[in-house]
Amino acid sequence: MLLHLSISQFTLVDQLELEFGPGTSTLTGETGAGKSITLDALGLALGDRGNGDLVRAGAKRADIHATFDISAHQDARAWLEEQEMDAGREVILRRTISADGRSRAYINGQPVTLMQLRTLGEQLIDIHSQHEHQSLLKKDTHRRLLDEYAHAEAQSAEVRIHYKTWQDQYRRYRKLADSAEETQARRDLLEYQLQELEQLDLKPSELEELESEQRQLANAGDILNGSYQLAALLNGGEGDIAEQLHRALQLVSAMPEQSPALAEVAQMLDSARIQIDEAGSTLSRHIDRFEMDPERLAEVEERLSAIYSIARKHRVQPDQLPELQQQWQQELEEIGAPDALDKLASECERLEQDFRKAAGNLSKLRSAAARKLADAVNAQLADLAMPHARVELALTALEKPTATGLEEVEILIATNPGQPARALGKIASGGELSRVSLAIQVVTAQTSRTPTLVFDEVDVGIGGATGDVVGKLLRQLGERGQVICVTHLAQVAARAHRQYLVEKHSDGEAAFVALRELKDGERSAEVARMLGGAATAQSLAHAEEMLARA
């Protein structure tokens, strides 16, 4: 239930504080006084879209707070707990809009997204606007109203999910089926190419090792000849490096006085001699083990030729063949097995069955609720001076199922006895359409789980005795919860539990909208004004009689 509404710097409002209670409250005032401004501000606090034009001229930002009692609203408290927000007895929704159009939203002081604000707001208040009768001409509205009346919102959402899952899978099936021949050809090619690479069986680093071995085998003669020459140079007899080092060591040793520098030279020469001896030994072992192997050379060159040939065939470098093999393997896995199409078809059939089962359950709920809703609306129409009108909710099976189910929902009406029921827009006049809209809103509001109902001039086009009936209906709704109504009918205002007056003032430079609750005589005067404009003794007496009767 809405407890408090604070509006600051919003359009024509400078500062406004309103306290609300249970029952039916009406907002009245002269035409153009700004009665709907309060509801517009409330809508922003609930997540409606806004812009900088809504900020009062000269102000930096508009600020709106709405405080609700949620002590008896388990769904709202559960949602707040899921969002890790404070879920006490009260919740405060806040919305600010800067003059530059920037908007911020808060729940209990915690910044939230506009979607979060709207989600919670929809659980707290249900707003019926004066223009809702226009949406009543749309079949989507008819289906929504019926699903809400049947409390089938969860089943409707389940049907949409099943339908989307089924259609997404079906689109994949059609795409695969349409390209089945092309896909099979690609699969065959990939399998052939992969088999070719698997037969090649190129090992990691094998190419580098083969190329090194090939160079060595191809130059075996030159390598062996050079090795012999190097061996002779190192330790091959008279004049070789080993002999030269030996003579150098003898010269150093024969000097009569050994300086530190000569001692260091002798040490280095001795070390060089040892290294030369080891180099000669290693070279001798290399020569002894070195083999000329033409057959191995042929094998290596044949292997390299096969690798180079396949690389040229697929226009890649030889060392890129393993990577290419991996790419082809991944593509083949993505294409799937040859029986993937059959499996996908079976999956589509299963998903369609799931959808039709869920849609069938929804159809049963709609069918049962359609009769009850039609009967309840017809009973209200009789009270609204349309005793001969007959509303029907037609459920027509669709040729192709949709995300909304297996049938189309349409509200039909016959305004006179003996006439067949036809579409609302083809039969109902503007005034009749307004009364049908009001009847539907009143009926659906009676089954609504939303604690606060707001009616914004839904009684437009209605007057006289019918207006008194509307007032009774709204008061009855207020007995079960909280109703806030903007009205221009004295009959409706008189039936309310409390009444607020909206007034527009001007100081010559700017206009201001003010709102206050009326007490006793003030309320009689306002109802008298609504009856005939000027408050006369006769109109005041009539107003007091209406208030007493209410």
UniProtKB/TrEMBL annotation:
Coiled-coil stretches: 163-200, 341-368
Keyword Zinc applies: no
Residue ranges of domain RecF/RecN/SMC N-terminal in the record: 3-508
Superkingdom, natural source: Bacteria
Record flagged with keyword Zinc: no
Pfam families: SMC_N
InterPro entries, A to Z: DNA_recomb/repair_RecN (IPR004604), P-loop_NTPase (IPR027417), RecF/RecN/SMC_N (IPR003395)
Assigned keywords, A-Z: ATP-binding, Coiled coil, DNA damage, DNA repair, Nucleotide-binding
NCBIfam families according to UniProt: PRK10869.1, recN
Family to which this protein belongs: Belongs to the RecN family.
PANTHER family tied to this protein: DNA REPAIR PROTEIN RECN
Function field: May be involved in recombinational repair of damaged DNA.
Name under which the protein is recorded: DNA repair protein RecN
Gene transcribed to yield this protein: recN
